[in-house]
Structure formats: structure tokens, C-alpha cells
Amino acid sequence: MRLVSQVLLLLVVCLIAIALPSLPAQAQCGGPFIELSPKYGHPGTDVIVSGHVFTAGKLVDIYYDGDLVATGRASSDGGFTTMITIPEGCSGHYQVLANAGYTQVDTYFTVKPGLAVSPDNGPPGMTVTVEGQGFASSEEGIELLYYLDGSYQTVSSEITASAKGSWEATFLIPDSTRGEHRLDAQGAISQLYNVEGTTFTVTAGISLDKSAGFVGDTVTMSGSRFAPIEMGIQILFDGQPVVTGIKANSAGEWQASFMVPGMSTGEYTITAEGDQTTREDVGALSFEIEPDIALSPAHGHVATNLTVTGHGFVAHEEVDIMYDGSVVTTAGADVDGNFEASFPAPESQYGEHQVAAGYGGANHANAPFTMESVPPDKPAVISPGSGSRVGLIGTRVTPTFKWAAVSDDSGVHYRLKIATSDDFNESSIIASVTGLSQTSYTLDRTLPYGTYYWTVQAVDGAQNESGWTAARPFRIGLLPLWAFIVIIVAVVVVLGVLIGVRVRRRIIYDDRW
């Protein structure tokens, strides 16, 4: 019986001995002490430092690994609470010291390797950055792991930590199911089980076939990782629905198109939501509305009335309308950035010209206008006719040239050439006149006796040219002046001779009788 009692006593002592280590540690002799919560973690962890049994009202400086990181003040019951953030550093144990003058107490914080990812959610294909801290100094061979389909996949490797145990890596989120996916790492020293991993949440995804466009453009959005057969999906442009009633297939995928609404230029957000998927789950994409103009008609002649319609310009802004860089009119954009303006096509060369709209003479949108290229008819010459004479005697004459009018939608003017040779070579041209609006022209100087040639051409307002008319010869005067004088002299001489002969005959006759 006595043996049984001794055995029972020994059992009680053993139970007490087993229980004692699990009891909270008490400060020695009831003095001040500090506690950390949590007691371990990676750099960047926020840690609450709680002090107990300090002198009431006493300032307490908190040091981490010898550096002052915070200051607290003990309350009336001798307690205080403050927070510190664990700075960059390698894995290991670091002293946390509370200094209250003559009183100093400490404990230890254990730095473990850990990861942080930014951003921490999004669709597959997104580029994310993972930051590792608390690894061994200059640790090599670190692998970044992404949990997918029941196992880890290496998404980045051969990473080397800095002297303070930090590193950074970027990678594309692989094609993954919707929900949380774990990120872990391991290296030559840091084991997988010892690293505090993190998670990336794969959300429903949307994509656009273009990120910028004009009002009225068709844009196609594709959705993925929505709920299977999800109903009531709608696309929101700047918060307003542009497509509704979309249904996802059994894989949670869908596609729909919409037209860019009439809004002023700028960046807008586009997102989607459904009965089971919120817009926060999806995120948002950016779409830029760019200014654009339409021109009507797109081709014509000089003075054609052109109408410019603009969309996506700055609301309530004055817009310059330009033709080949010159401002021809202005228009005010309305609240949605739309405007309309008209102007006649100015005289300009046949072919393509640029009609543009912008601010302060800058080109923000343009459209081509094609000026007609049909030449006018040749004029019909009237006078002087071919081979005709102007004047009789070789005095200097000022001729007048006349031709028939030609009509053209772009308007017409005429060019005239007068030369001494029918090939109108440069050395033979004595007059070349352009920009004639009338169908006649009197030369600004006299022409001496001789043979001349003239030709005329029609040119319209688009600088289309008719052919030159055939060279028409004409003569100035019947005889040159010297020949006329010789004839006169000869006539006078002949008359004188005849008169002299007649006089002599008369004298002889009178003498006989």
C-alpha cells in the first residue's frame, strides 16, 4: 500500500513537471518585461511591442538590432503599446530592446524568409512583381513557384538575393483557374517549408481588340473565367451599359461587340459584370477616344460646298477647320465633343488635299479631299484668223486677240502666247500672258511689219490645262514702209516723167502751128 502511495506521488510530480514549461514566462522578480506580437515573420511585418510593469509615465525607447525605431510612454499601470515595422534584413534572430533609463529589458524577433506580390489579383497574362525578403545573405539558386493544377510550377529561377537577403522577380500569370493560387520560393539555404508564401487571386478577365478608336468604331470584348453559363453579363463604358444580356458558355467565356459612344476625347474605363461576377472581380480596361472627322463630299471641284462632321473633340472647345494647313473656318464642339462646319473648296491644284481639324492650327484629325482633274475644252480662236492681215502699210500696229469662252465647274482663266515662230520656242516668244479672265486681249505694245503666230489655252481653278490651240499666223501690214516709200517715189518719178513728156510734146505742137 505504501508502494502505491509513492507511485501516485511520483506521478503527480511528473504531471506538474510536464505542465510547468507550458505556463507563460514571468518576469524575473516581478520586474518590467516586453512581449512581441507576432514573434517572427519576414521584413515588412508590423509588430506590436507591449510593455508591462514599467514606471508610470516613463518614456521607453524601442531599439531593433541596435537602431532606435519607436518610443512609447508607460501608462499609469506601467504598460505601453507601440508598433514597429521589421526592416530589411537576412533571416535570423534580432534583439528588440526596451530602454527606460536605468531599466532595460529585451526579447528577440525571428526573421524568416517571406514573399509579397504586386498586384495581388488580376487575369492570366498579367505581369506581376514578387519581392522576397528575409532570405540568407547573397543566397543563390532561388526559385519562384506558382501553384497550378495540383503542383508547383517554376515561373522564375536562378535568382540571387542581395547582401540583406532581398530579391525581386517578375513573371506573367499563366493560364489559371479563377481563385487563389499560392506563390512560394526556395533556395540553396531557405527551404520551401520555412518560406512564408503569398497568394495571387486570378479574377475573371476581359480583353479588347483595340485600346483606342473613334466614335462609332466597333470594339469587340472577350470575357473569360466568368461563372459557367453566367447570365445577365453587360459591358460598361464609362459606367454606362453599351451591351446587355450576354451569356457565358460552360467554360465561363463570352464575346460581344459594341460601338464607341459619342463622347468627347479622353481616356475612359471599360469593364463588365454579370449576375455572379462583379466589376470589382473583373477590373477595368482603359480605352482612348480619339478625335475624328468625316468629309462630305470627298471629291469635287473648286467652290464645292464641303461639310466637315467631327466627333470626339474636346467639349465646348473652338475647333479650327483647315484646308492644306490654312484655316478656312471654325466651329464649336458641343458637350459630347461633336461639331459640324461647311466651307467652299478653295482654288487648288487637282489631286488630293488634306482637310483637318484641331486647336490653334494643330492637326488632330484629318480626311482627304480629291480635287477634280478633268481639263477644260480648248478655246475656239476668233481673230485674227489664220493668215489674216492687221493694218495695211508697215506702220506699227497694236493687235487685239479674241477667242470663244470655255465653261468649267472650277472656273476658267486663259493663257496667251505670241511668237515669231510657229513652234513657240523660247527665243521666238515676244509675249506670254497668263491669268486672263476675259476672252479678248489687246497687246500692250505695237508690232512692226511681219508675220506672227498666236495660240491660246484654257486653265481651270484646279490648274487643269486644256491643250494649246494650233498656231495661228497673221501679218502686220501689207507692205513694209520702205517698199511703200519706194513705190511712192517711183510713182512720183513716173508721173514727173509723163508730165515732162507731155509738156515737151505740147511745146513742139504749139511751135508747129
Quick tags:
single chain; mainly beta; Immunoglobulin-like; five-stranded mixed β-sheet; 40 strands; 513 residues; rod-shaped; disordered N terminus
Describe what you observe in this structure:
11% of the residues lie in helices and 46% in strands. By secondary structure, it is mainly beta. It has five domains: 81 residues, Immunoglobulin-like, CATH 2.60.40.10; 89 residues, Immunoglobulin-like, CATH 2.60.40.1930; 85 residues, Macroglobulin (MG2) domain (Immunoglobulin-like); 80 residues, Sandwich (Immunoglobulin-like), CATH 2.60.40.10; 101 residues, Sandwich (Immunoglobulin-like). The longest helix has 32 residues.
Topology:
Blueprint: H1 2-19, E1 33-37, E2 40-41, E3 46-52, E4 59-64, E5 67-73, E6 80-85, E7 92-100, E8 103-111, E9 114-118, E10 121-122, E11 127-133, E12 142-148, E13 151-159, E14 167-172, E15 179-186, E16 198-202, E17 205-208, E18 212-213, E19 218-224, E20 233-237, E21 240-246, E22 254-259, E23 266-273, H2 279-282, E24 285-289, E25 292-296, E26 299-300, E27 305-311, E28 318-323, E29 326-332, E30 339-344, E31 351-358, E32 365-371, E33 381-383, E34 388-390, E35 400-403, E36 412-419, E37 429-436, E38 440-442, E39 450-460, E40 472-476, H3 481-512
**CATH homology superfamily name of the largest domain:** Immunoglobulins
Low-confidence runs: 1-28
Which architecture of the largest domain would the CATH scheme give at its second level? Answer: Sandwich
Strand order of the largest sheet: 2-8-7-4-5
| DSSP E strands, number | 40
CATH topology of the largest domain: Immunoglobulin-like
Report the average pLDDT across residues. 90
| Protein structure class | mainly beta
Briefly, what CATH class of the largest domain?
Mainly Beta
Sheet with the most strands, sense and barrel status? 5 strands, mixed
What share of residues are in beta strands? over 45%
First-to-last CA distance: 224 Å
What's the gyration radius in Å?
52 Å
Query: Please, how many domains?
Result: 5
Please work out how many helical segments DSSP would assign. Answer: 3
Which percent range fits the helix content? 10-25%
